[in-house]
Design brief:
- The protein folds into 2 domains: 137 residues, Rossmann fold; 221 residues, Glycerate kinase, domain 2, CATH 3.90.1510.
- It is built from 14 helices and 13 strands.
- It is elongated.
- The chain starts with a strand and ends with a helix.
- Keywords: Kinase, Transferase.
- It comes from Anaerovibrio lipolyticus.
Length: 379
């Protein structure tokens, strides 16, 4: 039996690969002769760097960068085994979890550290980038990142604008004469699953400003400044489009990538599926196993397990999913390619006990073993 295992991480418990290896162990307890292939799975959000980098034979990199509050922090990204592809999560340098609740204010938080990660990867030979832009603490239109890459974002006196959305208030001119030369050789695939424009009632300031710490008054101002930034950008780059779907993603980071780099915005899961060549493996499989930490009604809305199941059904392959827990709404997964799913929790325990990696691993092994025993029964 040829089995492909592609499961998303059980966040807080097991990484994608750890969960996959536990499933493999459970399978081997019943089908010792099975040929198994464990592949990384993620949807472009948290955990994508680790899943893709380690799952595809790459190496994690650590670098000191400027955090969202302007202080120095340690951030991690990945370089794949080809030496040319970097996997980056914006949240590693500009994530909202890096900012204490009482300091959240998009007027001052910056994406500068994201640009520093990109520069480091370029200097190490990377020219192809896969970037997840979820979970940001910022609303600076990506200006901080662009400054790190060498774009001079200048005020009326020719001085660099300050960090954060407040910098957009005084932005008057963009000079690209000092941009790092490697940038023109680079391509960027941006994992983006939102379609917000840059400005207006559906724009980044209005939709995401409050959760990043902005007041209603700040939101109105930021939206105006963001519009001015879009106008200045379009005066220099005619292709700049503030209304492009996803331009408002991550506080305008989508706009920055589309305007100032060679980038495309794509579904996170579609990027991962393409980069891991999951379809090639599934097409040869007898069984596909997937899953994630929690199967619920949201799983069918572009999450990784359903992405894997969709490919499997192209080839009429059976699909089983395992999850840390499931909700009543998870039955929707049965209509989207997952033939059967199983929660791995095997007793009444506290949440912390259930999420303990050692317990989660053993629960996964034991549950998979029993599912495989049923599969082996001749009815």
């Amino acid at each position: 039996m040829n089995i492909v295992i592609a499961i998303d991480s059980l966040k807080g418990s097991l990484t994608s690969l750890e969960a996959g290896k536990a499933i493999e162990t459970g399978i081997k307890k019943v089908y010792s002769e099975a040929v198994t292939k464990v592949l990384p799975l993620a949807d472009g959000g948290e955990g994508t760097v680790e899943a893709l980098t380690l799952g595809m034979g790459g190496k994690l990199q650590s670098i000191e960068v400027t955090g969202p509050l302007g202080n120095k922090i340690l951030a991690q990204y990945g370089i794949l085994s080809d030496g040319k592809t970097a996997i980056v999560e914006m949240a590693a340098a500009a994530g909202i979890t890096l900012v204490p609740d009482n300091k959240r204010n998009p007027l001052y938080t910056t994406t500068y550290g994201v640009g520093e990660i990109l520069l480091d990867a370029m200097h190490k030979g990377c020219r192809h980038f896969i970037i997840g832009i979820g979970g940001s603490a910022t609303n600076d239109g990506g200006v901080g990142m662009l400054q790190a890459l060498g774009y001079d974002m200048l005020d009326a006196d020719g001085n660099p604008v300050p960090f954060g959305a407040a910098g957009l208030k005084v932005l008057c001119r963009i000079d690209d004469s000092r941009v790092t030369p490697e940038l023109k050789e680079c391509s960027f695939r941006i994992a983006c699953d939102v379609t917000n424009p840059l400005c207006g009632e559906k724009g980044c300031s209005a939709i995401y400003g409050l959760q990043k710490g902005a007041s209603p008054e700040d939101i109105a101002l930021m939206d105006k400044w963001m519009g001015d930034y879009a106008r200045i950008s379009k005066e220099k780059y005619s292709h700049a489009d503030a209304n492009a779907p996803g331009a408002g993603a991550a506080g305008g980071m989508g706009f920055a990538f589309l305007t100032f780099t060679n980038a495309t915005l794509e579904s996170g899961i579609e990027i991962v599926l393409a980069e891991t060549k999951l379809e090639d493996h599934i097409s040869k499989a007898d069984l596909v196993i997937t899953g994630e930490g929690r199967l619920d009604g949201q799983t069918v809305m572009g999450k990784a397990p359903v992405g894997a199941a969709r490919i499997a059904k192209k080839y009429n392959k059976p699909v089983i999913a395992f999850a840390g827990c499931v909700t009543p709404e998870a039955t929707a997964c049965n209509e989207h390619g997952i033939d059967a799913f199983f929660p791995i929790l095997r007793g009444v325990v506290s949440l912390s006990e259930a999420m303990e990696p050692k317990n989660a691993r053993q629960n996964m092994i034991d549950t998979v073993e029993q599912a495989m025993r049923l599969l082996k029964v001749k009815i």
